[in-house]
Write a structure and sequence with these properties.
By secondary structure, this protein is mostly beta strands. 6% of the residues lie in helices and 46% in strands. The protein has one helix spanning 116-122, and strands spanning 20-30, 33-42, 51-58, 64-71, 82-90, 97-104, 112-114. A four-stranded mixed beta sheet has the order 5-2-1-7. A three-stranded antiparallel beta sheet has the order 4-3-6, with no helix packed on it. It is globular and about 65 Å long.
Length: 123
């Protein structure tokens, strides 16, 4: 006799754990530059090397204006450490919003999340 197929659900997909937490950030224009600055925290259990903050500025209609990136201040950023960062681009009057991401110089995007403080601010 053949065994009936087992209807076992697949194991739950493990969401990747963030390695970075965006503690705080803002941007403004000054002296012809758009300046984004803030702090990011390493919430992983390993040192992260060559972390870069990537800021993308857009128009009010969500059109791309420019993007720039810069290394965060601490390299490596140690587990539990919070590092400042600052990204500058030439200001453009069309800039209305900005978004941020984190990546490594030689790799892809790093998985990150907002701090509780930043999550509360978004609501």
């Amino acid at each position: 006799s053949q065994n009936a197929p087992q209807n076992t659900p697949p194991p739950p997909i493990q969401a990747p754990k963030p390695v970075l937490e965006l503690v705080d950030w803002t941007w403004h224009t000054e002296y012809g530059y758009a300046i984004a600055e803030g702090q990011v925290k390493n919430v992983s259990d390993r040192s992260l090397e060559h972390v870069r903050a990537v800021v993308t500025w857009k128009t009010k209609d969500d059109g791309f204006v420019t993007s720039d990136n810069a290394p965060i201040e601490y390299n490596p950023i140690l587990p539990g450490q919070t590092s400042p960062f600052k990204v500058m681009a030439t200001a453009n009057p069309a800039m209305r919003t900005a978004s941020i991401d984190f990546k490594t110089t030689f790799g892809g995007s790093l998985y990150w999340d907002l701090s509780e403080k930043m999550k509360k601010r978004k609501k």
